[in-house]
Backbone:
């Protein structure tokens, strides 16, 4: 697959008017192909593979919050990066998920061509599926290079998206508690 992608990058570089035989560009198509494979590796991952059995019985019924999970994704409209952080809160229902699995779930969806709004929902749905939680909340804050580097070129713009499911949506005190955690 790398060779196939590499040929396409070679054509792109030549199409923008560069000399593909220039010293600095000789290996660029191959490097770009490897980078693209890494940046889209989420397509070859599954929730079951990511969770890998790390769901544990627990009597805890209070909210668990994981903040500031870094994410790097690429917008599906311009294939430019968006970079930010994800906050996740959930109310367990007899099961908790291993801590590192939250970051792995975020990465699985971030490493696909995305729009932030859909990714937020995909992460929330995956946590519900993996844990059977009573409620899940996901907030993503990100800066989009497609808005900063091209088009309107607004350097200080950012986007916040949220998805609330179950008790996090229907129970205002739970929702408020999560949002308070995220603000601090």
Residues:
């Amino acid at each position: 697959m790398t060779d196939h992608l590499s040929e396409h990058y070679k054509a792109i570089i030549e199409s923008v008017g560069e000399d593909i035989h220039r010293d600095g560009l000789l290996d660029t198509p191959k490097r770009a192909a490897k980078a693209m494979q890494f940046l889209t590796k989420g397509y070859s991952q599954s929730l079951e593979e990511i969770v890998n059995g790390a769901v544990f019985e627990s009597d805890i019924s209070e909210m668990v919050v994981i903040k500031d999970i870094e994410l790097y994704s690429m917008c599906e409209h311009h294939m430019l990066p968006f970079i930010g952080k994800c906050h996740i809160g959930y109310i367990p229902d007899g099961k908790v998920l291993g801590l590192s699995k939250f970051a792995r779930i975020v990465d699985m969806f971030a490493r696909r061509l995305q729009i932030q709004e859909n990714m937020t929902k995909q992460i929330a749905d995956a946590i519900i599926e993996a844990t059977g939680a009573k409620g899940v909340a996901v907030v993503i804050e990100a800066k989009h290079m497609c808005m900063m580097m091209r088009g309107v070129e607004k350097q200080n713009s950012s986007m916040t998206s949220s998805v609330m499911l179950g008790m996090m949506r229907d129970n205002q005190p739970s929702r408020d508690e999560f949002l308070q955690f995220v603000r601090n």
Summary: The chain has a mean pLDDT of 96. The chain has two domains: 2-39, 54-183. The first strand starts at residue 55 and ends at 57. The helical segments are 2-15, 28-39, 47-51, 99-110, 116-131, 145-148, 167-170, 172-183.
